[in-house]
TrEMBL record:
Cofactors, names only: a divalent metal cation
Family annotation (SUPFAM superfamilies): NAD kinase/diacylglycerol kinase-like (SSF111331)
Catalytic activities: NAD(+) + ATP = ADP + NADP(+) + H(+)
Gene3D superfamilies: Probable inorganic polyphosphate/atp-NAD kinase, domain 1 (3.40.50.10330), Probable inorganic polyphosphate/atp-NAD kinase, domain 2 (2.60.200.30)
Organism annotation: Coprococcus eutactus
Residues given in the record as NAD(+) binding sites: D65, G66, N139, D140, R150, D169, T180, G181, Y182, N183, L184, S185
Task of the protein: Involved in the regulation of the intracellular balance of NAD and NADP, and is a key enzyme in the biosynthesis of NADP. Catalyzes specifically the phosphorylation on 2'-hydroxyl of the adenosine moiety of NAD to yield NADP.
Active site (record annotation): D65 (proton acceptor)
Designated name of the protein: NAD kinase
Keyword Nucleotide-binding in annotation: yes
Pfam family, any one: NAD_kinase_C
GO BP annotations listed: NAD+ metabolic process; NADP+ biosynthetic process
One GO cellular component term: cytoplasm
Amino acid sequence: MKNFYIVYNPDKDEDNRITSELTAYIESQNGACKAMDCYSFSACDKQHVTDELESFDCILVLGGDGTLLNVASSASHVEIPLFGINLGTVGFLTEGEITNWQTIIDRLLADDYSMQDRMMIRGTVRTGDGKECRKRALNDIVISRAGFSRLIGLDVYVNGSFLNAYEGDGIIISTPTGSTGYNLSAGGPIVDPMARLMIITPVCPHSLTSKSIVLPSDAKVSIEIAKKRKTQDTEAIVSFDGGNDFELAAGDVLDICVSQRTTQLVKASDVNFYEILRNKLGGK
């Protein structure tokens, strides 16, 4: 790799110091790069993103997991790998750290790396008036309560068969990559990120028996928003990787399946997932 597109989080890189150092180092090693802040990058339309990335080998993401997810979403239609350098806190997706970025760049420039294809899921929102909206997610798709709503009702179907009627704060449909995110915080299982499956985890369910459910990668999940109160039109909000929120009303349906597209993450260190997991979760 010689050509790098850098997307940085200006909230985490004060005065663009790290971005400037990274850019200068790449150019000193006969590489080429261009930088853009993550907010401007996410505001670009698909064609602009395609044009911007056309001559680059890799996107270097400077920030935390949230920044990388945002970039992955904006560039999901372009076949280009991503590598994250963690400027945030936990950072399961961002393999590089601020303390070792020079070593990482040296390995990338020397083509000393491997690729991981991470599974994505696709959600299609179908509203009562016949409108459809489709988005992909690398981490998760989450339905949560809207505004002052106390509980939302969700009727969940798998492959056309009724699974359960959930009441609570919402529900998470997670990929293996997203299993260490919101899914983990909600009590869901941790899954090896190279697995191919989906996890359904209820959020604060109004039940003592509601648990996470692991589904195979060929499963088709449908979630219908149930009516809870006569005086409230909007019952819930659906978000894809923590953004792209859409309001849902009673009767609206969210269909979820595994996407044919994947996200390519560059692996340029000798640390495996289980070492990262042990270090991030405070193991010995």
